[in-house]
Amino acid sequence: MESLQDLVRKYYMEQGYNCAETLIHAGNEYYNLHLHEDDMKMMAGFGGGMFVGSTCGALVGSVATISKLVIKTKAHDQMQDIRPVVVRCNQHFREVLGATDCAHVKARHHSKEVRCLNTCLLASQVLEDVLKEFDIVQ
Q: What domain range includes position 46?
């Protein structure tokens, strides 16, 4: 089985998805989320920090993956389940990448050669760390 990082490389570099799309596609395949291709199109507008340098798309894609894994009905029914995981994901993302907004993350991790691949790879590691920390996946 391919690693989550291998899937991130595939979706970002080979298939040309943006950061948010990459994380949800890789998460969908790796964690068997059973999302359909049409469902994942909803992530398109979150790339580039919603195209204005706001919250990093890789973080948004990670939180979307967490939400699909944790929530059975809706967030308000499971606030005690979802809130600490998402808060920790944000904290750990900031620790590892130095910021949570695209403009600052991009300044640190973007390169001409691979664009935001390094951001997506680090985000996928953060995602895995947080899911393991909360025993959501093994």
A: 4-133
